[in-house]
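Collaboration report, partner site 2.

Our partner group contributed sequences for two proteins of shared interest, and the home lab folded both. The records are reproduced in the order in which they were received, starting with the first partner submission.
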Amino acid sequence: MDIIELLRREFNPRQVIVDETSLTAYATDESGEGPYYPRAAFLAQSPLEVEKLLRLASMEGFAVTPRGLGTGKSGGALPVCGGVVLAMDGMKRILEIDEDSSLAIVEPGIITQTLQQAVWEHRLFYPPDPASLDTCSLGGNVAENAGGPRAFRYGVTREYVLGMEAVTMGGKRFNLGRKSIKGVSGYDLTGLLTGSEGTLAVFTKLIMRLIPRHREPGIVLAFYADLASAARAVTALLSSSVHPMALELIDGYSLKNITGIEGFAPPAEAGGAILCEMEGLPDDDALLERLADILEGGDPLHIDVAMDPSACRRLWTARRNVSTRLKENHRYKISEDIAVPRAAIPAAVAQVQEIARRHGLHMGCYGHAGDGNLHVNFVTDDDGARKNFAMAVEELFVTTIRLGGTLSGEHGIGISKKRFMALEHDPNSLDMMHAIKKAWDPQNLLNPGKIL
């Protein structure tokens, strides 16, 4: 039976999107890949509907691509094999906030910032803060194991997923994990599904760990003459006993592109900067002095301090808009998110700059220096230089692996990076990944064409 006819028969037709204009929204994401058009998109409203769709897909043999809000940067939610996009953004309720146990039970379509704001009112805190936190869904965060600036202090999404309700291809729905903080009963299937990019199961409910609300933070922003000096200052700070909430590195090209956002005005000669956010900084003069001493060891051009919430928000607004401004200010842009051992950050930024120079590209490098996660953006306005993107990216990944790093710190593999997986993983480990995929999805119908 035709997929569209089947969906309209089995579900409310208003939940089935089939016209090409509306399907355009499901054919792309923030990766720049595509467009890949599905036959239809299904707007799920309940776990029972997800269960039913995956059972029908298995029986009829059509692919299903789970999708949150389309903010992914590796093409993980693109329907590369057609079929049906399973849109989860309609399932966005907070089912429970348990203050005594410090956990929340939510549906996967909830926006990450919405969860953060809701639990904050209960004197609790959900730390992961991807750049798109005001537009991305929690289910997508779990699927990609998202991070963000505060991952340095608090860890990535995986550290906060206690359990989930999941549905596999064929319509089998079951619960994984637990509500308790500790638990080592059986294989860690919750950990397996976190970061699996929707290739093994679809989440219909998530149990998220929360922590006590933190004290008011402050920010110290240090500008340096070049990126190498800023990177060395990062290494010095990481070698100290000071442990920030977030430690961000921004190169000079990125600084120029965000100048003017919320009044952001770096020194014109700045070639690099460090943004350091510290809990309790406004109330601790000794901590501020010690932090400044460490950063001044790298001979900064200038140091700014933001102590009130509005000033901190303005700085974060500028920082979170680096990628957007690089895209707006150039005809062509490709973004990657490597991660290297923290001691290798100075070598990584130096080699990335050389790769860009060698291929006639501009480069914006910024990211979460506290955990070695660097966002490398190659940009150009030249049609000829654009052809060098592929070579620059391949050299970037080869360099990253040589430095002991990984292809992705938080954006995932999706379709954008799967051809490079053999650089990082040996054949036996890749065989094991294929075996896991086959065990969970023997027909290869759930988000096919991703990771492997």
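Second partner submission, folded after the first:
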Amino acid sequence: MDALLILSGLLLMLFGLVWLIMLAFGSSLFWGLGSLFPPLTLVYVVRHWRIARKAVALSALGCIPLVVGFVLLASNDPVRFEAIASLRWLTPAPIKPNELAIELRGQLNGEPFAPQQGELIDGVLSLREGQEFFAQRAVNVHLPPITNGAVRLNVLPTDAQPLPEVEISWLLPEHDLPEARRLNHGYTLYLDLQPLAPNKMTGDFHLVLPAQFNTTLSGKIELFTNRLRYIDGKVDAYFDSRDTLSYVIEDYLQRRYASRAVRLDKLPAVSFPASSFELEVEALVNDQPQQITLLLSKTEALGWGVQGDQYARFAEPAVVSPAPAPASSVSSTTTPAPARSSVDRRLRFSLERLQRTPEQYNNLLIRVTTAHGSTAQGRFAGINANGRIVIRREISGPGEASYILRPDEISQIELLEP
């Protein structure tokens, strides 16, 4: 109703203005041309009031439904009214910077290819150009199972099958569905990707397809390894993805049952955009199966969360300095101190101690902050032959992510378990 009143008021004012210009042209050509400019229009109204008063009255009549419509809008939808009154809709939407540093040169199907999205999830490397459901142009490479964190692959046209399947697709302007081509031999592919905390991979990508495909790509790429997004090292709870929901639910269950031994089964399929979901969740909590119905909702203040969540956050482990030993006289016979039944290895934990005795910290939860400000958290999996720290973290779906970090790029390391 409010929108109808506002629209009718604007139409009446517009008809009144058009009528006024027609009356001005009826008076003379000079006044008609002058009425096209607002200052001279007012002069014409003053000089020829008896002629112009009917058109002015029609425009003034349009102000009544316009004002009433805005009053109703302000009472029914104050947020929308404030957005209209502040004229924010006149300013162009800011252009979001690309989340990934992708620097590819070349062409796909004879056209320049500049992907903004990249993923390596469930063994499929995907590069997409365009934000719509169907990509404007895309490359998908179905990779063999990844045994460690890094991905290295070198395929030549003469290599024997089986080889990774490469798929390219493009959307023509006059078509609703993209065209696609697949091949599993006769191409050149070189990959050298390294993990980048917390959930990315980065490295070299070179792809040359047979001449009839007009596709040659070469450069640096950056890929997400799951559908989580991070802000300042923390998971962005506002991002719409099933991985975000899994993270929120797992965090909720850990705090609800006061245990980090929570393993969440794969969530059912969900459709975005949405503001709430009711999900049947199955999980193992302390090796005991649990089936729970949860209502998740998205708020402007916190992003995605579980309704009714009032459980306290886990406290970060505090480092307690040992009390100084009391002074005692020196005797020739020293009595050995009794052995401690349990040792909190967090007290004197450091990168040097981890490198010196890595076997003491196997499979313990650690958090690493790099010199670039990125954060990686997972289970310590040892030190490889090159002296690099290996951290494993389970991800949604099959498999796990491995972070391999050089000691010189670590600025801070924390042990999160005793």
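Feedback sent to the partner group on the second submission included the following. The chain has four domains: 2-90, 103-224, 230-306, 351-415. Residues 139 and 168 are 5 Å apart (CA to CA).
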